[in-house]
Design goal:
Blueprint (H helix, E strand, L loop, with lengths): L1 H27 L4 H27 L13 H22 L6 H25 L1
Helix pairs in contact: 1-2, 1-4, 2-3, 3-4
Pfam family, one: DUF3054
Organism: Nocardia speluncae
Protein name: DUF3054 domain-containing protein
Length: 126
Amino acid sequence: MLRSVRWLGPIVVDVLLVVLFCVIGRRSHEEAILAGLLHTAWPFATGLAVGWVAAYLLSRRRPETEPFNGMRLRPTGLVIWSSTLVVGMALRVVSGQGTAVSFIIVAASVLALFLLGWRAAVRAIN
């Protein structure tokens, strides 16, 4: 059970928060939410997946210190957040979607609040 909490719970939370980020973005631009959600979300969802794989692989470099835990703020959350942002923006560029500087700043801030914020809250509670 504890292993699934370290994996499944944090993955579900991260996916839901990335989707929420995309829903908020579409709503703020008065775009159809459901009709274009996949179009908006796939770059960030891909970045999120890359971040999870990278965080796991980085943790395997020193497995004797502590088993992988997806709820950790550092380094797990930081790797996942930065990958979601950087890979997401890169995929938006190659797919012809917008990447204005103001959007990058907003995306970095909101994704940090979402992907790092819940981990910081869990850490503070524990």
